[in-house]
Automatic annotation (TrEMBL):
It is an enzyme of class 2 (transferase). It comes from the Eukaryota. GO terms for cellular component: mitochondrion. It comes from Strongyloides ratti (Parasitic roundworm). Belongs to the glycine N-acyltransferase family. This is Glycine N-acyltransferase-like protein. Gene3D superfamilies: 3.40.630.30. Its EC number is 2.3.1.-.
């Protein structure tokens, strides 16, 4: 499917929830170069510590099948917002088209832009996060989140930035381009164009998370420390991104996992958020409430032991469309429960939400990297080896904080 990317002339386009405004950049207007890259995607960081408790409450035993049925029914009732886009060409006066209303995705088919018979041809490192988050916005999956997005481009370069501001928890920014690209000049230009807009939107927040390749992050570190109140970096983690292509999805994921007799796959209830937080290596202000919202708004997976009602393993959906925070309690490890959760959540993300299964792994987590490489269904989005990250996962704060360490647990 060809990208339907509007040809609006400024180098930077600000797309917001309520009113979408085209903003003139400092460089001269040029036509957008539209080029798709194969098998590129994004992910989220798994950061769990040792277990503290693993008894799930009785109200959580609702079967996953019942949950899926209700979610599918709700999705069928949802009418996607139709595209209503004012576009320009190279000969159009930009000032006559200041407003861009209802820009909800970049593809011809707004109802299902990703899930087709050939997903590989659609994976584009520059639009995947934007597509996932706009899909969430369009279907109103997360009413507790506000979304802002920007497009920055010239004749031979394009990238997208997406900012999510949550009712609870820190805001997150994702900046995406070709992960093989290491053009520092372009990276600095993008940061300079975006910085003031982003700073204004997050100014009242205490912390902010940013996920992007080092061609952007090296300049973001500099401007946030020298030109904002977010002067403290307490996480700066190199991360690799993985995704599941169509061939591997059909071969390993589509039919779902097999688990031991006496165990059951469930949808985790919002009441389980505190137990999830107890397994984190760290969590911040508002993260408990954010996790509660995510369990309410998106699919997640747990495996419980029927005889004891204890949770053996779980996997969380982070709200950006990515698999995150897989954790198996020590008494249940080496029995395939973690992989079963991963397979089931990957299936739900694609079948229910139309989101390509994807995740991120810190390069500090050697065991998880080895396991991910061993599992045949994951593919790296770049050709880099495990000494080179695809992105840095970085937290900035207005306050001094203890440096966070990521490790296998």
């Amino acid at each position: 499917m060809d990208d339907k990317i509007i040809s609006i002339q400024p180098e930077i386009e600000n797309i917001n929830n309520d009113k979408h405004i085209s903003i003139n950049a400092r460089t001269s207007p040029t036509d957008l170069t539209n080029h798709s890259e194969s098998y590129k995607n994004n992910g989220s960081l798994s950061i769990f510590a040792d277990s503290k408790k693993n008894c799930i409450k009785n109200d959580s035993t609702t079967s996953l099948n019942k949950y899926i049925s209700s979610k599918i029914t709700n999705l069928k009732k949802t009418t996607p917002i139709k595209n209503k886009i004012n576009t320009t060409n190279s000969n159009t006066n930009l000032n006559s088209h200041r407003d861009v209303v209802g820009l909800v995705n970049l593809h011809n088919n707004s109802k299902n832009p990703l899930c087709t018979e050939n997903t590989d041809s659609l994976i584009n490192s520059q639009t995947l996060v934007l597509e996932s988050l706009l899909k969430s916005k369009t279907n109103k999956w997360s009413p507790t989140t506000k979304l802002y997005a920007w497009k920055v481009y010239d004749t031979d370069f394009i990238c997208y930035a997406v900012l999510n501001i949550h009712k609870h928890g820190k805001p997150y920014i994702f900046i995406q381009t070709d992960y093989e690209n290491e053009n520092n000049e372009k990276g600095e230009l993008v940061v300079n164009l975006l910085f003031n807009d982003i700073k204004k939107l997050v100014d009242e927040c205490e912390d902010i998370g940013i996920v992007c390749s080092n061609m952007f992050m090296k300049f973001l570190r500099k401007v946030f420390i020298t030109q904002s109140s977010f002067k403290n970096i307490y996480l700066d983690e190199p991360v690799a991104f993985f995704y599941i292509n169509d061939e591997n999805y059909k071969k390993y994921i589509k039919n779902g996992p097999s688990i031991e007799e006496g165990f059951e796959i469930i949808q985790l209830p919002p009441s389980y958020a505190q137990t999830m937080m107890d397994q984190l290596l760290f969590f911040g202000k508002g993260d408990l409430e954010l996790a509660t919202n995510r369990l309410e708004q998106y699919p997640s997976v747990g495996i419980i032991e029927k005889s004891t009602n204890k949770i053996a393993s779980f996997y969380y959906n982070d709200g950006y469309g990515f698999l995150a925070h897989q954790f198996t309690f020590k008494d249940y490890r080496k029995r395939g429960f973690g992989t079963a959760c991963e397979i089931e959540l990957s299936r739900l993300n694609k079948e229910m939400m139309g989101v390509i299964p994807m995740k991120a792994v810190s390069l500090s987590r050697k065991y998880v990297l080895q396991l991910t490489e061993k599992l045949k269904y994951w593919s790296r989005i770049s050709n880099k080896d495990f000494s080179q990250p695809d992105v840095y996962w970085t937290f900035f704060s207005k306050n001094e904080k203890h440096k966070t360490e990521i490790f296998d647990n």
